């Protein structure tokens, strides 16, 4: 009885959070359903299409990969990325993990030994292909953003198909190639496997990885904070970028942060944002949603600011309107 009594308020809170998430996700604009098919089976997705997009023009696409315990509506509500898409004029794709593929809806980013990770990555690429074909997404301006397990999957996608993405954002994730099973994934999350010798592509024909933004909480009890710096160092090493001097930033009453840029030939190819007071939550997220910290610096604005800079470097890609400033 005690357990049932304890679970009841939590279950009611979860139901209220899901209802709120659906309301936020289905605001002005279109919240379109879709289904991607591939070797790994099928996965549903949602596409947010803002109102008043320019007719006849291709627009940028941001791929948002949720963390464990989330779905597309919840992640959209937590990050408020759809509101940013309305203001800036881009599409947002939310692939959704199925609970049959993982009981907590985690992306199986680590399960490369069995091939499940690669199969799920192929399904996400299939969803991207559908959106490019059906909704005028610009294939030259695609970026991927992930939280926790979604960050691990974002890294896998970007390192396997680096020419498909112009930027990557990893929030509370671990470096690519450090895990190949459940056991090694847990060790990596605890900070015991921070790098892998075969993580970077080899050979003269290997393509460089796209630019990366890392956001990591210093009070994260799920993914060890040491992972953030490890990801940044690994990625910067692959791109030949060197770390600059860290700078402290704080916006209003939000948590302070430390920003380190890794540059190559004057261009910041990797940026590391460390937020000491942030736990395992989307920084600056909606307070009513799980895995959100409303007091953190706005990760969604930082992500778009970083991504928009890379899009402006794309030949013929155009210039996204009113890019945000990194560090808000």
Describe the structure.
This protein is of the alpha/beta class. The protein has a single domain, classed as Rossmann fold, CATH 3.40.50. Helices cover 33% and strands 24% of the residues. The protein contains eight helices and 13 strands. Strands 1, 2, 3, 4, 5, 6, 7, 8, 9, 10 and 11 form an eleven-stranded mixed beta sheet that branches. Strand 10 and strand 11 form a beta hairpin. Helix 1 crosses helix 2. The radius of gyration is 19 Å and the shape is globular. Residues 1-17, 201-205 and 319-328 have low confidence and may be disordered.
Quick synopsis:
The chain is built from eight helices and 13 strands.
Map the helices and strands.
Blueprint: H1 2-25, E1 30-38, E2 41-49, E3 59-65, H2 72-79, H3 81-88, E4 91-95, H4 116-134, E5 137-147, H5 149-160, E6 167-171, H6 182-189, E7 212-217, H7 226-239, E8 242-243, E9 247-249, E10 257-264, E11 267-275, E12 282-283, E13 292-293, H8 299-312
Parallel strand pairs: 3-4, 3-5, 5-6, 6-7, 7-11, 12-13
Antiparallel strand pairs: 1-2, 2-4, 8-10, 9-10, 10-11
